[in-house]
Amino acid sequence: MPDIGKLLWPKSVAVVGASSNLHSLRGRILEIILSHPFAGKVFPVSRSASDVQGLKAYPSVDALPEPADVAMLIVPAQYVPAELERCGKAGIKAAAILSSGFAEEGDLGNRMQQEIATIARRYDMAVSGPNSEGFSNLAASLCANFSPASDKSAGPLIPLQPVGRGQVSVISQSGGVGFAFIDRARPRNLKFRYVVTTGNEAVLEIADFVDYMLDEGETDVFLLLTEAVKSPEKFKRVAEKALRAGKPLIVGKIGQSEAGSRAVASHTAVLAGSAAAYRAVFDRYGLIEGRDFDEMLDLAVGFLACGNRMPAGRRVGICTASGGAGIWMADACAAAGLEVPILDAATRRALDAYVPSYGTTQNPVDSTAQGVQKFGYAEFARLVARSPSVDGVIVVITARRSAFLEGDLPKLKDLARETEKPVFMWSYTLPAERTVEILNEAGYPLFTTAHGCAGTLQKMADYRALRGRLPFRVETAPAADRSKTKAMLAAAPRMICEYRARPLLAAYGIGSENTGPLVHSGDEAAAAAKAIGGLVALKVQSPDIPHKTEAGAVMLNLDGADRVRAGYEQVLDAARRHTPMAHIDGVLVQAMARPGREVILGVHSDPTWGMMLMVGIGGVLVEALGDVVLAPLPIDRAGALALIARLKGAQLLGGFRGTPPADVGALADLMVKLSNFAFDHAERISAIDLNPVIVHAEQEGISVVDALIVKSDDRSSEGRSAAG
Amino acid sequence: MPDIGKLLWPKSVAVVGASSNLHSLRGRILEIILSHPFAGKVFPVSRSASDVQGLKAYPSVDALPEPADVAMLIVPAQYVPAELERCGKAGIKAAAILSSGFAEEGDLGNRMQQEIATIARRYDMAVSGPNSEGFSNLAASLCANFSPASDKSAGPLIPLQPVGRGQVSVISQSGGVGFAFIDRARPRNLKFRYVVTTGNEAVLEIADFVDYMLDEGETDVFLLLTEAVKSPEKFKRVAEKALRAGKPLIVGKIGQSEAGSRAVASHTAVLAGSAAAYRAVFDRYGLIEGRDFDEMLDLAVGFLACGNRMPAGRRVGICTASGGAGIWMADACAAAGLEVPILDAATRRALDAYVPSYGTTQNPVDSTAQGVQKFGYAEFARLVARSPSVDGVIVVITARRSAFLEGDLPKLKDLARETEKPVFMWSYTLPAERTVEILNEAGYPLFTTAHGCAGTLQKMADYRALRGRLPFRVETAPAADRSKTKAMLAAAPRMICEYRARPLLAAYGIGSENTGPLVHSGDEAAAAAKAIGGLVALKVQSPDIPHKTEAGAVMLNLDGADRVRAGYEQVLDAARRHTPMAHIDGVLVQAMARPGREVILGVHSDPTWGMMLMVGIGGVLVEALGDVVLAPLPIDRAGALALIARLKGAQLLGGFRGTPPADVGALADLMVKLSNFAFDHAERISAIDLNPVIVHAEQEGISVVDALIVKSDDRSSEGRSAAG
User: Fold this and answer.
1) Global confidence as pTM
2) Which of A121, B94, B290, B674 is buried most deeply by CB count within 10 Å?
3) Fold of A1-130
4) Between chains, do B324 and A187 touch, taking CB under 8 Å as contact?
């Protein structure tokens, strides 16, 4: 493993392609490095000039007085591989490649990019890029990039009064977006440690940098921007490591829309994978998604200031001096999924002494301008924070003028020291610089949008709850079943119909082995139906007709010998019309399932993330709204229950409008079993559909009504879903 | 009608309760008025001082040298009515009441508030408040309020280089929020005309001020913040007037959540009405809802800059020099409901000459930093704006430094002059002040969040489309039917069961008059079923059991004399068990309806907005998701179709997964008929349920399967929904 420390903490930097032209990017990068008090050496490397921006220039990296720790390559793409090779030979252990024109540009570029990876491996070099914009190590005052955000004129690299005690690092595939975080965060006084832009990620990926920084232990909050994850297993491993360490990964995933992912493909030339699968992986590992700069920075501010006292639940107390602004905040809390409960009687009694008659103590607590004028913000926040009815407090303030808060500062500091609950500030006016400093000094996060404030509190509550579920448990089936199933799977055809799939799945406790008889004539069908009694279903079994219902090859609710006999002919006819050359193994005769809620359960392989478990509420919800959610395998019972809760129609399972609640526990158990089955045999399986599964009333279990397994081709884990 | 002009354009202002103490609100208001170059006279009125802040003070409003045009009342609540009376007697025609302690404080305050209204009527005075924060007329340099946003130190009242050519007015119930708009809009250079805060609206409401400003014709965009609308009919009339004039009303509706509306009630003591009904009214009249300051200001900026060339559709072209930022914008567009289509071949060919090989022309057009460096932003925007594939353009820029844009300015100006499509700018870095000015000068709206930019474009497209539907047509039934129905309704009992409701509704073309026979014994039921043939339904008819299905008083799909007979006994038993003292009129025997999509249609009365039409897709979607939408009555056919399209499950009606499309046209026709019925007889009707309505395949119409009319008590239009 190459040493990322050489890249981020160099004692010397070579700028290969450096220029004296300050209007060119090759001139700008050197100018910017030199404008900051970086303590290491800087070597311009230029073919044509012997002096660049007043420094002695070297004709080549092998002509340097000593091997540089890192080489910044900013030369035309076609020269990059040779230059990198030269760096390797010269003993340079790290490089950042800023040149464009690689995988984003087609075959030739793609080959050059692979060459870069090969050279990096050969010399064990830590290489970022190509198509990156360089990096900054703010702690070392090293800005090895040409971003305007690194310009000395843009302001100090480290704020005088940072929010919270921790540091933030940005790791972004996009250079422009990566450095824009620094720019946009400046009014909010975030203390950045690193900004790394990874571009096409020929060698080092975002996860590699996160891993390094977690080991280093100096980064408390990560801001990530990813177009596509190249090494999913590494990503998941590092994400779990971050979650265990309690270092939140705040992530912007760009390219989620059709046009966006089209642009990703042309931009960094990697497969974007499905947005739903990304979200599933993020949810599993506690990555917190933000949809724009402001949302991501709000989250960073919240975690930096209150990461040591995240909300234990979703109940918020709101203090306000502006009735209207308080109401707006209450609405924003509700929209974010927080609760704004009426406060307990004791708290309200305590507040009565401070709130004028035309204010209110219920929640939002409207202390009115007069109340705040008299007692300050801190007094109200303290009383509300003590209430057993809330898990966190939002104080609505006007931060335009600092004078008033200045007076309140000692009390604000006391409160921040004493409380175990997060206290957030939202200013409905634009904050003065000094106000931000005062609040940072006192230890409060300041938000300027109500939704950013409420959303951050809600996501911090989620993050705390998810960490409470650590470590993730995985329950697997006994080893004996595993090897037996493995052999059966090996022997099975590619498309495993229900009558063959059931015994396989039953070994893991999924559904019953008993499929009902497979019949080959109308008379056999009628006899089987009679033996079963009551209403029956007929289902054609053919490896060539995986979607039986759409083919008309299923009939339900039949009774009586004549109807069953006629049904048998009808489903066979339909099957033959649908797929004339289909090989038909027979027709299953089954008792109709007991009533309950219809659910779709499945497993399929995402092109990036591999095997994913899918659950959805069946029928019209899936048809009209695509109400399904995914999780990466494997999943534990708590994860299964959390997944079910994320369905839009989840309440349909929970006992709704007087209907008895469904056996959600049995559904979660089934999900774990299916996860285990697919996880144990991932190399053989492309997709599994259990559709439908009927979830009966509580304590009455579930019925797996149909099952289909699609084996993968050539043992690759790639595959299409058989769902739909 | 009192003259709002006297209030907003006074030649003289009396400040009643003025003080020399600049730390009190009573001192601040006078200080602020005097700090701006207001050309009128200012009269301090004080009981105790003869000189206030260097001005001669008067002991009472009747001691002024001349009647002031407006009196600002900032005295304790209990003195307000007498003071207002004194103003009236002294010939003062307008007043703004800033004092708190009225309806928000209980019975006594409520009575005082009513007194204010009475006095205002008596003297025909234009009165805003109480519990307001005053107003500003920026055009007259009059800041009659104590908001810090009006402080001279906060910056110039009118920006040097405003965005667009138009003016914005803010009218807000909340004082704090109202003036915060000015504060938050300052970096964006909006030219404000008025900020009016209306508080408890004892006399003048938001709609009164909008009406005045529409007549005045100088306000181009309105920013409204409402807690609750007091006079719905006036509000609707003024909203339609604004829509016809093409002056967008951008509205923040606070108090939409439970906690929020609880706080509204205690804050301004008015009934908040249902959030869904507000949304329905906003949608009908083209009010554009923003959920926070930034969203509302983004909308204002968009309309001010591009109100004369709103997008004719939802297709956007994106130009970017940062691949990552462009992708993020594409995602934001998709999330906002815009399309980002691949550009036409001719446009792409034209772009090829400008875009380097490692960029892309598909859309987003990634010109790369090099491309923009060479040709500027305007060139790319011009080429994309000409494409027939797009209705608007978003240019992704970095606005940190103005120098580059400065060079591009002539071309940017040309483009803004020539194009008929909106061209928006989004900066992913924080803009420099000068950049905002340059873009304003050139005529472009600048956005700092991708979602704000995309959302504004989308809402402008919607606004244009809605105006295209003007004038709203209302088709009513012939007068003959109306009077006949009126008489029948008058004679009917309060709870009108299906068998009595059908003839009433059929007069308006709703469903069929034929209810099937009403039977009174099992034998009669069996005979009726036989006569009908096929499967039948049995439904108990009782004014005491409006929710038959929940009571078990309905059976479906019966055939055969025995089953029908048994069914008859069963539904009667269930009805009697459910409501032992129920009066039962009989049991309807009906043929089962043909298959189709189940829809719920209804009318009910909202406490604020009166009669609302409701449509929802039935079954699980309504149960799990409450997938219903509302519209105020009356509704025309285009409105009905637009309403259906807003259902989450709308695609279920539109032919989905190979199922034939449903007869949406017939459903829209039915909605118009129901609307007409309820509109014509609004004074008699509390609620109507048509549940379910079955929408058959295209051209095959609809079946109204059940119907219930609930008459209103005492001819008031108040009432509860019978739905559910």
Assistant:
1) 0.92
2) B674
3) Rossmann fold (3.40.50)
4) no
Q: Give pLDDT tens digits for B318-331.
A: 999 999 999 999 99
Residue pairs spanning A and B at CB distance below 8 A: 281
Is B369 in CB contact (< 8 Å) with chain A? yes
**Angle in degrees, CA A156, A160, A166, rounded to 5:** 105
A376–B contact, CB cutoff 8 A: no
- CATH level 3 topology of A597-704: D-amino Acid Aminotransferase; Chain A, domain 1 (3.30.470)
Whether the CB of B712 is below 8 Å from some CB of chain A: the reply is no
Cβ–Cβ contact A109 with B under 8 A: yes
**Averaged pLDDT, A569-585:** 93
Spell out the residues 6+ positions from residue B523 whose beta carbon is closer than 8 angstroms to its own: B565
Q: Å from A180 to nearest chain B CA?
A: 5
3-state percent helix, strand, coil for chain B, nearest multiple of 5: 45, 20, 35
Residue B410 to chain A, least CA–CA distance (Å): 22
Q: A537 pairs with which residues across the strands?
A: A590
Q: Which residue, among A703, A678, A685, A653, has the nearest Cα to A474 in the 3D structure?
A: A678
Higher-confidence residue of B307 and B400: namely B307
DSSP H or E run through B114:
helix B107-123
| B239 vs A: CB within 8 A | no
User: How close B255 comes to chain A (CA, Å)?
Assistant: 6
The residues in A 637-696 lying below 8 A from B, measured between CB atoms, are 648-649, 651-652, 656-657
> What gap in Å lies between CA B288 and CA B300, rounded to an integer?
10
Contact at 8 Å (CB) between A687 and A721? yes
Q: Which residues, 6+ apart, have CB-to-CB distance to B285 below 8 Å?
A: B236, B239, B240, B242, B243, B249
Q: How far apart are CA B389 and CA B386, in angstroms?
A: 9
Is domain A311-468 annotated with CATH 3.90.1330.10? no
**Residue B262 near chain A (CB below 8 Å):** yes
Rounded to whole angstroms, the Cα distance separating A63 from B476 reads: 91
Cα(A572)–Cα(A574) distance, integer angstroms: 5
* Exposure b/e, B84-105, CB count within 10 A at least 16 = b: bbbbbebebbbbbbbbbbbbbb
Boundaries of every domain in chain A = 1-130, 158-308, 311-468, 496-591, 597-704
A324·B360 Cβ contact <8 A: no
Superfamily designation of domain A496-591 = ATP-grasp fold, A domain (3.30.1490.20)
Instruction: Judge whether B1-130 and B158-308 match in fold.
Output: yes
Q: Which of A328, A620, A625 sits opposite B254 (nearest CB)?
A: A328
- DSSP label at residue A291: S
pLDDT above 90 (res A118) = yes
Are A618 and A692 a contacting pair, CB within 8 Å? Answer: yes
Average pLDDT over residues B689-696: 93
- In angstroms, the CA B369 to CA A177 distance is 13
What DSSP state is assigned to residue A589?
E
Residue type, A622: V
Residue B717 has a pLDDT of 39
Indicate the SS3 state at residue B151. coil
Superfamily of domain A158-308: Succinyl-CoA synthetase domains (3.40.50.261)
Of A148, A263, A366, the CB nearest to B366: A263
φ, ψ (nearest 5 deg) of residue B107:
-60, -50
Provide CB contacts within 8 A for B299, sequence distance 6+.
B221, B248, B250, B288, B290, B455, B456, B459
In chain A, how many H helices and how many E strands? Answer: 24, 30
The ipTM of this complex is 0.91
Alpha-carbon gap: B91 to the closest alpha carbon of chain A (Å): 31
What pLDDT shows up at residue A120?
A: 97
Closest CA–CA distance from residue A450 to any residue of chain B (Å):
7
